[in-house]
Amino acid sequence: MSKRIEAWTLIAVISTLFTASSFAADDASLLKDLTAVIALLGLPCGQVVSATELGNNDHLATCKDGNRYRVFVNGAGRVVAQKQ
To answer: CA dist 26 to 9, 23, 34, 48, 63, Å?
Structure first.
């Protein structure tokens, strides 16, 4: 019985590690995407260092230079960045 518990514990730990690395990869690509969106809109930022999801297609981006923007899709389907 203890070998089964050890096996299940090992499986749980390994799956947790793979899930965490998956979220980290998604987070890195999200930061790059938000950086690109803010730059394309002509707003000062430099690089997005953190982002908080406020809703579906709605994020609060914090830039390296200290600026913060709410980046979202408006009712007309356009991406908008509002300085916070």
So the answer is: 26, 5, 12, 14, 18
pTM of the model: 0.68
**Phi and psi for 60 in degrees, rounded to 5?**
-105, 110
Max CA separation in the chain (angstroms): 62
**Which DSSP symbol is given to 14?**
H
CA distances to 9, 14, 26, 49, 61 from 77, in Å? 46, 40, 23, 26, 19
40-83 confidence digits (pLDDT tens): 999 999 899 999 999 888 999 999 999 999 999 998 888 999 99
DSSP state of 66: S
Enter the tokens of residue 36.
């690109």
